[in-house]
Automatic annotation (TrEMBL):
Keywords: Hydrolase, Magnesium, Manganese, Metal-binding. Gene3D superfamilies: Nucleoside Triphosphate Pyrophosphohydrolase. It comes from Pseudosulfitobacter pseudonitzschiae. The keyword Hydrolase applies. Its cofactor is Mn(2+); Mg(2+). This is CoA pyrophosphatase. Coiled coil: none annotated. The keyword DNA damage does not apply.
Amino acid sequence: MQKRRPVTIDLNAIKAALDRPGRPSSDFDLNPDAVLPEGRKLRPAGVLAAVVEGRTELELILTTRSSALKHHPGQIAFPGGKQEEADADVTAAALREAHEEIGLPPELVQVLGTLPPHETGTGFLVTPVLAYVGEPFQVLPETGEVAEVFRVPLSHVLNPDNYITQSRRWRGVMRTYYTVPYGPYYIWGATARMLRAWTDRMT
């Protein structure tokens, strides 16, 4: 099978992708036999998919979560978290959390738009907020939540050829999920699923 050529990634391409139709995603997309609880209440959350200028191309900011956290310890994630009462919306939540977690000043962030929300197996409805940071800033990880802040080439995580589906047992049943590894970083689960939704919009 002939592989698709990598998509040229720039801000115009991202903005054009946001104008295309999309649909919500879920941790259960690859598991059609999963039974979801009736009447479940999902907690709104926002994550910031912030891109910055790298040496040769746009790069995406990601974090490794602290191993001490209750939810998803040690996993790779976007900066972000649940919407609090003081937040105007999920975008405000994503900006606040990014400031708290990695020291990104909200005034440096140019919000480009949002992707449809993603339902997680832990009961959150997460909205990815796509954004551009055109100026450098001092990364200040909140050590109680963030073990590491790093960047990956945007062209890597938005290339469908780089995605792999894998499976593992979770709560007694086999679950299939996306991964998009990069070097020593094993990007999987909800983060990879949201990135895959973004990838589908780009292509």
